[in-house]
Specification:
Helix content: 25-40%
Number of helices: 15
Strand order of the largest sheet: 11-10-9-12-8-13-14-15-16-17-18
Number of strands: 26
Structural class: alpha/beta
Radius of gyration: 24 Å
Shape: globular
Strand content: 15-25%
Distance between the termini: 70 Å
Oligomer: single chain
């Protein structure tokens, strides 16, 4: 990348109508910008620092200046930080400025790599992994390398493969990943696009060759996220303003509104069970524990099999098929991917040796995902007559989940264990007590156990002799708990559940030999 100066950054902001003023010496405009960040812990010599967020403190700027920051960007000059003698670029919209300058600094070029953006309330991660699998199979046939991924589980850009911290990273992180992918000659990148990423302009400068809209239901409603459903829905719909081909699910209850918004795209491809869909599926069946379904479109007709359990994943698979069809991926590559791809933390299954316990780890964490999960387990696990659920609700956000998940779990479970799931600044026991009211309102026995490991172990230990299905929900493959303002390393639900069942197996075995 060519080295940019503070003056170059000022010019870009001015051309985009974002610059309010520049306060600093004229000579400082010639300083070279070697890095950009909003995190004072990542500052190095030559950094342009961004002051963003309601929680921003002057100490962050002071730390940045001490670490080598040569100028900062903010919506207002921080007068209380006058002791910091570095230039300031004041802007009208810090979020938009971040996206614009990130794209400029990392020299973003549309279609290098080709981007697919996936949004919706449920299914983004699985759809992303399915589509990546299809593209990977096709690229391998042509002698190209693995494609890129930005997801809730993992990020990969040709240079870096890392566990994800958030669904859609901030603009600086996104643009760095795209620059790495371009440098490593990756031709495709598949990414999840959250409502927060759209609302707060993290993806504002990106162009999606394909944008997939999976579904919508009320979620992320809180003072820190979206004020109401319309705010949430509107943020999701805005993806079409930067999309070439929109792939829209006709089975969504809000499909009419979604299709109207999709007219902002240059082309629309629909998918779903509806006979009017461009890519339509039918004949969903469960054969020997494997899910199969048929797909018809103008270009092909074939039968597909999923490696993953969960009939709700058929919708995710068909969304990926629709997008892959836009790219011209051969059907046999689509079939290979769907028959082999499993996503960490999504419908992971563990069974005891005596067959009495079947445990499932899944990321289900909102109303739509809970509804579809319970529907799936009733269809796919009829031999387990007793259902036990272990889950929690996050602190400070998505406040509607406490009522909705409490009621749903209470309706469809025989017992519920409420536990910790990213309480942030709230007390985990207070969150659990609130959810418990709704669980017990549905007539379901419920116990609150703050320690997640203990809750999972107790759910396994108390199964008794009846065949039991244990659903451990909400965290999936996440390796941390967010408590207060920090993320603490914590075992994944898969690790905890498999360990608990292994311990159960040992106890049962010792009883048997006696």
């Amino acid at each position: 990348m060519d080295m940019k100066t503070v003056g170059d950054m000022k010019t870009v902001l001015m051309r985009r109508g974002l610059l309010k003023a520049y306060q600093g010496e004229t000579a400082a405009l010639e300083r070279k910008v070697s890095w950009i960040t909003y995190d004072s812990r990542q500052v190095r010599d030559g950094t342009l620092f961004f002051c963003k967020g309601k929680e921003f403190r002057k100490k962050y700027l002071e730390d940045a200046a001490a670490g080598g920051c040569i100028a900062y960007v903010a919506e207002e000059r921080l007068e209380e930080a006058d002791s910091v003698s570095i230039p300031c670029l004041t802007v009208w919209d810090i979020r938009k400025a971040m996206a614009v300058l990130a794209a400029y600094f990392f020299e973003y070029e549309p279609d290098q790599p080709v981007l697919t953006g996936i949004t919706g309330t449920k299914g983004k991660t699985t759809t992303a992994w399915y589509l990546k699998g299809m593209l990977d199979a096709w690229e391998a046939e042509q002698g190209y390398q693995e494609t890129g991924l930005i997801s809730s589980v993992q990020n990969y850009d040709g240079k870096i493969r890392e566990d994800a911290v958030m669904t859609t990273p901030e603009a600086f992180v996104l643009q760095e990943h795209l620059a790495n992918a371009r440098e490593e000659h990756l031709r495709y990148m598949t990414m999840e696009v959250s409502s927060q990423a759209l609302k707060y302009k993290r993806v504002r400068e990106l162009r999606f060759r394909v944008g997939i809209f999976l579904n919508i239901s009320e979620d992320h409603i809180s003072p820190q996220e979206h004020a109401d459903f319309e705010d949430y829905f509107g943020a999701k719909l805005s993806i079409f303003r930067q999309t070439d081909t929109a792939c829209v699910n006709l089975d969504s209850p809000e499909s009419d509104r979604i299709l109207k918004a999709a007219r902002k795209a240059r082309r629309v491809v629909t998918f779903g069970k509806s006979k009017d869909a461009d890519v339509r599926y039918r004949n969903v069946r469960i054969l020997n524990g494997r899910i199969t379904f048929s797909v018809e479109s103008e270009g092909f007709q074939d039968t597909f099999t999923l490696a993953m359990r969960g009939v709700f994943n058929v919708e995710n698979a068909v969304a990926a098929i629709a997008a892959a069809s836009v790219y011209g991926v051969p059907v046999h590559c689509m079939k290979h991917a769907l028959a082999s791809v499993c996503v960490p933390g999504r419908m992971e299954m563990y069974t005891s040796r005596d067959g009495k316990i079947c445990g499932i780890v899944d990321f289900a964490h909102n109303r739509l995902s809970f509804e579809r999960l319970f529907d799936a387990v009733y269809q796919e696990y009829p031999q387990y007559h007793r259902i036990v659920s272990v889950f929690g609700c996050p602190g400070g956000k998505a406040l509607n989940r406490r009522r909705e998940l409490g009621l749903l779990a209470g309706l469809f479970s025989d017992k519920v264990y409420l536990t910790t799931d990213d309480p942030f600044s709230e007390r985990a026991q207070d969150i659990a007590a609130e959810v418990r009211e709704y669980t017990e309102l549905a007539g379901c026995p419920c116990v609150c156990i703050e320690d997640r490991e203990q809750a999972i172990c107790q759910a396994v230990e108390e199964c008794g002799d009846e065949k039991t299905l244990i659903l451990v929900l909400g965290k999936g493959s996440e390796k941390y708990q967010k408590i207060g303002g920090k993320a603490y390393i914590y075992p994944t639900d898969a690790e905890l559940l498999s360990q608990a069942i292994h311990q159960y197996d040992g106890i049962q075995f010792s009883h048997a030999i006696k």
